[in-house]
Specification:
The protein is α/β, with parallel strands linked by helices. The strands form 2 sheets. Strands 1-11-12-10-9-2-3-8 form an 8-stranded mixed beta sheet, with helices on both faces. Helix 3 packs parallel to helix 4 and helix 6 packs parallel to helix 8. It is globular.
Length: 308
Amino acid sequence: MKSESTVARPVEAPPEGALAPSQPAVLLHERLHFSVPFVPPASNRIRALHEWRMEENDSPILRYLYRHVRPRRHLEFGTWEGRGTLDCLQECDAAVWSINLRHGETNEQGRWAYDAWLDDYATPRHDHAPHADHAHDDADYAHDEALRFVGCLPHSASLATRTARNGRTVVRTDAMGAIGRLVHEAGLGHRLCQIYCDSRQWDATSLPDGFFDSVLIDGGHSAEVVASDTRHSLRLVHSGGLILWHDYCPDAEAQAGCPSIRGVLDAMSQLAPTIRRYCADWFWIEPSWLLVGVRNDRTFDIRAAEVG
């Protein structure tokens, strides 16, 4: 099916104190020239932004975008268990490339950033934050526990695990076989190319400029990583294609409670002049944790950008 046009208006000046202008979610079709408006779920109308959940609140927006843009090739920085990847795969015929750390992320305290009790893992949980009640707290860990791998998922993937002080097994949900597991369980693994590396070290030189129709940046959330992923995206997304940043939200209360938002905002602040130069439009979807860029036809030289 042919995609709808994403020809955008010239980049407008953002409101004072904001990095990018905002666009009401219910009027996305006007800005992106889609024929059908977005109808938000009821929770999007009543939930405060600091309580926002990707799988419940941002997922419908992403599905709407993929349904109308209909990318053929989609790039994803950060997959976790694959819920966001399914948003794309189930709404269009795209093949998806995803980039993830093979051994998962660690938080500022050096602990696993995403984990769950292994005996609960058969019942998927899709929180977009580490499980506060799980055993990643220092007091709950058995010290000097060696990393182990076990086969326990329906597709017999290996999982990174360790044992907590209470004897229960903890699984690292953003590492090893857990990455993209929902995609494989849905039988869509044949459309997913999984790349395991630090995205700052990803060698994409074999891919031509404008190779991808869309990209979702939702991997490492430090300013350095987000900036690197953004530079890759500016080169690899073609004119008229979409660049989507997750964990962007100008709401002060959301920022106060979420370090990932602060990292994305820092990166966007640093790169704002570059993004405005290489995007025909750039705006925050209100309300959401999503920032959208529509690529223009200027050629982006990533080598010069990295040196600069």
